[in-house]
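cache lookup: miss for this entity combination. No prior model stored, computing from scratch. Input as submitted by user K.M.:
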Amino acid sequence: MAEMSLKPKRVEFGEIWNPLSRTVESLITLRAVDRKVWNACFSDVYTLCVAQPEPMADRLYTETKNFLESHVRDMLANKVMAKHDAANANNTNSRPDLLQRYYTTWTEYSQGIQYLHKLYNYLNQQHIKKQKITDTDTMYSNQTSAAGQMEIGELGLNIWRVIMVEYLAEDLVRHILEGIAADRASNGTLDSHRVQVINGVIHSFVEVENYEKVINDVVNNVDNEKTQKPDSLNLKLYQEHFEGPMLEASGAYYMIEANKLLQRCTVSQYLQEVIKILECETKRAEKFLHKTSLPKLRKQCEEKFINDRLGYIYSECRDMVSEERRQDLRNMYIVLKPIQDNLKAELIQTFLEHIKNEGLETVYALKGENIHIAFVENMLKVHHKYQELIADVFENDSLFLSALDKACASVINRRPSERQPCRSAEYVAKYCDTLLKKSKTCEAEIDQKLTNNITIFKYIEDKDVYQKFYSRLLAKRLIHEQSQSMDAEEGMINRLKQACGYEFTNKLHRMFTDISVSTDLNNKFNNHLKDNDIDLGINLSIKVLQAGAWPLGSTQVIPFAVPQEFEKSIKMFEDYYHNLFSGRKLTWLHHMCHGELKLSHLKKSYIVTMQTYQMAIILLFETCDTLSCREIQNTLQLNDETFQKHMQPMIESKLLIANSENLSGDTRIELNFDYTNKRTKFKISSALQKETPQEVEHTINSVDEDRKLFLQAAIVRIMKARKVLKHNALIQEVLSLSKVSFTPNIAMIKKCVESLIDKQYIERTANSGDEYSYMA
Amino acid sequence: MADDGENSVDNKPTDDSKPEKMFTLKKWNAVAMWSWDVECDICAICRVQVMDSCLRCQAENKRDVLGRQDCVVVWGECNHSFHHCCMSLWVKQNNRCPLCQQEWSIQRMGK
């Protein structure tokens, strides 16, 4: 045990180094070393490092260095450069041998160095590392440190680099490139041993400069993750000697290949080939190269096959898109995907135009009564089709999705001409109306269609127009009890609220609540009647709407002398209502009321549904059989328009007979006692429930009025905040404020600015014509 | 109507003898609109229609529960009317009607 003493002692260098160097030689050439010897060598290293009076670490280092240098030189001369190589450098048969010999030697040497590094652990840890730490602490540089010593692993690899690699690099790289070219020529079927050799040689260029990685791979697996970060790798040698020439050679190869392809391929085939080549080159890179080269090689490949050939690739783009050749488009997408977005613009733009054309085709030839249904459903089909295509072909790429959005928006918001307004908002609103009205369609299907409808709705720029139409149609559905289901109605309002916010649906909600409040109110009123033993003799149902929420202007209240048959009901209800609420007044909207009248003057008795005005007219015939139009109008206080509108259907139904075609004041109206109808219960059709062109126009005009108010308010708000603003800046801010509900035209904004100047909210500033300032 | 056939011939002559009227109202679906019974339908304090919620309530996005009973109208003895919300803030500073300067006292409240 004495020989294992850790105590420093006086020693003769040669006595220890000479046997030690033999072990070193055995290690470095991977010859067997006896365990006992191996163990003894550790203490030899230790002994030399701590020798007295002077430690011999430096000398050990120098001797080891000398030994390694001469060993590597010897290997270069005798093992790697076989003698005939120097003479027959051009003999192609000998070429692969250089790689093979280098690889074999390197495998042996790098392994040996790892053992050696371990053997010199004490020297590495105690002598060299400590020295390095003090160096960096004091001067942040170990280049100038007097010793300039490296750990043995690093030293060994460094010697290899200087002596072996620097000398052979050019030849090695040439052989490697030939090997890679051979792999390309054989479609990647180079024999696996060759691949292993080439791969090993290439990686030796990296490993030789990153001794920590090499050493730690074997010695210390725990530290691997810390030291293996690629950005911490030193790749200078690899990049300068190998990667650069390799990329250059590959680029030249790609260019030639691309040219060859161009000569024999259609675009469609070219795309297929390029995809194959990209895949092969990626595999090849993984097979041979260090992983940091992969993106660079791919880029080179893309550059030569794609970027440089964009003109060719795009040459059939229009046909591929218009014929929707999915496989070709898919290939084109795969090929274009890695390149910059702006270079894909042509495909995207072509695709956008294609969707737009198809949209316009399916939507703008539409005619007839159900145009709104066809409009929405055709547009949905287009949207759905291309959404599916984008998922299938373009991997849901956001660039393509936004092209779809742009195309749809442009079709949906297109005006048929400068003069005509875009009617999409109206169509979409009417489509909802059709769905929400009573029909045989099942609830689930309606729900699905309403959800789909939102897809189209979102593209509409004139959301305010939609809102106007929607609220008018909703009002009609609610008042005339045409809704299929109140749940569906509420669901739709909630969808709109989700899409456009509370403000947008506020009034719709209020309308909706009015109806449920009215239902309650009717129940309470009927109970009240029952409790007080009052019989009105009719089945009364009253809807009380709040003013302001419903799209029914007060102008629509028409003078009407209410027949006494209704009076009791009205009075009873008003009394009840005023008792229940205070401060409210009720206005009866007779033009929206209807009822059932039992006719007993004919052979059979009939129950007829009709408007209140029509009921009032018929009731006049209780006491006489003929009346002049003037008499009827005077008794009921009806204006001409209302009278005509309600009288005509009664004549058409033949319940009443007129003695002239046109109804003038002197026209005599007679009760038809010979009237018959197969049905005992029927309805007098009324013009009221159909949307008239005037109503449509009225709706559009009222939208314009609302927009002006909105714009003026927006301008005042902006100017109040900014105080002074240039014309163009003001326009921009107004546009951004209004885009949620509509896109105003600039002329309208200018008009609003003018009217605000007239009203002295703002003024033009004195020194500049295109600047406004806020007047407090 | 089983006896329709028998009566068909002398339907008209029997008309007078029948007490039943020729026309009877069976059912009436009426529509009425309510509004606050006010002289001026704009609240002079917030400049919003009294039928709508006042500015504050709109800004706070208050939900309209059962026909908007939370932002009602109030009438003073002077018969001027305002949003109750607006007026209750106003009287904290000045207990007079903003329109006629009479001392403010509530005549009635909307419900």
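stored under new cache key. Residues 91-96, 140-146, 218-228 of chain A have pLDDT under 50 and may be disordered.
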